[in-house]
Amino acid sequence: MPSFEPRDPDFETRIRDSFAQQQMMHTLGARLAAVRPGEVEIALPFHNALTQQHGYLHAAAVTAIADSACGYAALSLMEPGREVLSVEFKINLVAPAKGEHFVAVGRVLRPGRTLTVCTAEVHAEQDGASTLIAVMQATMIAVSRPKNQIVEKRA
Amino acid sequence: MPSFEPRDPDFETRIRDSFAQQQMMHTLGARLAAVRPGEVEIALPFHNALTQQHGYLHAAAVTAIADSACGYAALSLMEPGREVLSVEFKINLVAPAKGEHFVAVGRVLRPGRTLTVCTAEVHAEQDGASTLIAVMQATMIAVSRPKNQIVEKRA
Amino acid sequence: MPSFEPRDPDFETRIRDSFAQQQMMHTLGARLAAVRPGEVEIALPFHNALTQQHGYLHAAAVTAIADSACGYAALSLMEPGREVLSVEFKINLVAPAKGEHFVAVGRVLRPGRTLTVCTAEVHAEQDGASTLIAVMQATMIAVSRPKNQIVEKRA
Amino acid sequence: MPSFEPRDPDFETRIRDSFAQQQMMHTLGARLAAVRPGEVEIALPFHNALTQQHGYLHAAAVTAIADSACGYAALSLMEPGREVLSVEFKINLVAPAKGEHFVAVGRVLRPGRTLTVCTAEVHAEQDGASTLIAVMQATMIAVSRPKNQIVEKRA
Questions:
Q1: Could you give the CA distance from residue D111 to residue A129 in angstroms, rounded to a whole number?
Q2: D-chain residues near A112 (CB < 8 A)
Q3: pLDDT at position B146, please?
Q4: What is the pLDDT of residue C3?
Q5: Which member of C53, C60, C88 has the closest CB to residue D18?
């Protein structure tokens, strides 16, 4: 894995602030577990409120932490003042999301001034064992702070 | 768009039962709006609990209703006794998810005995206008009822 | 399907010129069959030189015409002087590529100043019947003419 | 990277035979460079016949070797008598395909009795330097030998 030099020394603060503003992450119960240049880890404990029809973690929750891990991995290498949006992603759900705890690790494969390509892996942890349950390949875009953001709606 | 003949006359009941068991859909506030052979519509009102860092609907919520719409569109054409799992999907987020209300329509492109390929579109509705915000292409698989489902966890 | 207004009245000439420069399209035997604002059609006759191990058209050839149809559909809506590159695409191969003739139709789903999202369908034609064999979802980017192009290599 | 145990001791012969039957690989000038359990490498020299409009290697050629490397990586772990087909793949083209020589390495991420998930990386080599130009995530399916293959067409 390549090592990356961040362009913004405060990248971790910027990422933690942005994560804290995502109400969806609170709703899911997700937590920013590790922030490194080009690599971000998000942890999510199992909860009944997040299940699909067989009682496992819903693909939407798996996808949510994988996408966010990719997005913040990309943001960790962007210039100060930039924000990140997901252009698109593709996820393979390779095993049932059965576990007590889930961890998504997002990594930058190729950083760019506009577009950054990332991958993520999600593992389920149960009884001390870790199982790969999903892999993602994602394209992220650096944007200036959106002018028409609806901050008042979050109040 | 092709018209499909369902192999299970009770497909709608089967889909509504499965949807009702998805705790994640309750948590998001999503609703099964329409069920037709090969086409399923899921509606989701905006809620602060589902936002990303700019106050818009989080990509995870957009993805959740698109994936479920694809999955149930696939299930609508499967034989009785089969269930559906997402193998993989790819989503493009083509506009900010800004709206009062969101609708995902999933459609079967090609049904198969094992694999079914679907697409979904998600629109945001605000002030009477409807905007395309996401498109998905997904692969679903028909499975027998998983033996090791953790039903007790849902109790 | 939405109708689009081209920003460059000479879009068709621009696309035909670009297509003619793609040696790969000559090697495959592909032909630009139709060019409309936001929609491009590429035709490819079957040839033994393009087969996979079972004697059908190779996925690479199917992908080549789908990707090019998407790219030129995107280019048809771009400003004069812009060129198009594929950022990424995803393709589902939904039936064996068995036919005498293949047609890819690429359509713009959402045009943008930088990124354009497209879809394509590929049909196989045999004995008067047409079968859907592949569907693609693709992201294209508008670029200025690459400075470091290696035109001398094409001489 | 996990290490895999092949179920067929003759996996390499099986792959080399299948590759030799792909007329498309001959047309491109691609060569099977390495075959290991769960990992296959395909090499392709630059050729003018394979270029896009700027004189670089066409995305179709990049995709062809990545898809084949994934497919054969999957086949390397399948039971004797099985064949492999691509269900779908997604590729990000992360840098211009500018080089004298190209190498695709496909790896199995998760093998399965029916579906196998793979990734591939493609590098361009020029003047002794190697550059990542594409990454793929793919789903492969194990099939019995297709009954209706058109072997006579290859004669």
A1: 19
A2: 94
A3: 58
A4: 85
A5: C53
C4 located within any domain = no
C-alpha span between A119 and C7 (Å, rounded): 36
Task: Find the CB nearest C154 among D51, D58, D93.
Answer: D51
Tell me if A124 sits within 8 A of A151, measured CB to CB: no
Number of domains in chain C: 1
Distance of alpha carbon C73 from alpha carbon C140, whole angstroms: 10
Among C88, C114, C141, whose Cβ lies nearest the Cβ of A88? C88
C95/B110 touch (CB, cutoff 8 Å), yes or no: yes
pLDDT of residue B3: 85
CB–CB of B139 and C110 under 8 A? no
Range of the domain at B22: 11-154
pLDDT in tens, C11-51: 999 999 999 999 999 999 999 999 999 999 999 999 999 99
List, edge to edge, every strand of the sheet that includes D31-36: C31-36, C39-45, C101-110, C115-126, C129-144, C82-93, D82-93, D129-144, D115-126, D101-110, D39-45, D31-36
C120 Cβ contact list (under 8 Å, min separation 6): C66, C67, C69, C70, C73, C104, C105, C106, C107, C134, C135, C136, C138
CB contact (8 A) between residue A92 and residue D119:
no
Q: What is the residue-wise DSSP string for D34-66?
A: EEETTEEEEEEE--GGGB-TTSSBPHHHHHHHH
Contact yes or no for D55 and C96 at CB 8 A: no
From residue B88, alpha-carbon distances to B5, B111, C39, C60, C121 in Å are 25, 15, 27, 21, 19
Q: What CATH number does the domain containing B51 carry?
A: 3.10.129.10
User: Distance (Å, rounded) from C-alpha C46 to C-alpha D150?
Assistant: 13
Contact D58 C83 (CB under 8 A): no
pLDDT digits (tens, 9 = 90+) for A69-123: 999 999 999 999 999 999 999 999 999 999 999 999 999 999 999 999 999 999 9
| D98-111 tens-digit pLDDT | 999 999 999 999 99
Which chains are within 8 Å of B by 3+ CB pairs? A, C, D
Q: Say if B6 falls within a structural domain.
A: no
Secondary structure of residue C96 in the 3-state scheme: coil
Asked if residue B2 is part of any domain, the answer here is: no
Chain C environment of B137 (Cβ under 8 Å):
90, 92, 119, 135-137
Interface of A with C (CB under 8 A): 87-88, 90, 114-115, 117, 139, 141
DSSP-assigned states of every residue in B2-20: -----S-TTHHHHHHHHHH
Residue D154 has pLDDT above 90, yes or no: no
| Enclosing H/E stretch for A80 | none
pLDDT in tens, chain C (155 residues): 568 999 999 999 999 999 999 999 999 999 999 999 999 999 999 999 999 988 999 999 999 999 999 999 999 999 999 999 999 999 999 999 999 999 999 999 999 999 999 999 999 999 999 999 999 999 999 998 755 444 434 33
Residue B83 backbone phi and psi in degrees, to 5: -125, 170
Q: Residue D3: what pLDDT?
A: 85
Q: Choose among D58, D67, D151: nearest Cβ to C22.
A: D58
Does A3 fall in a domain?
no
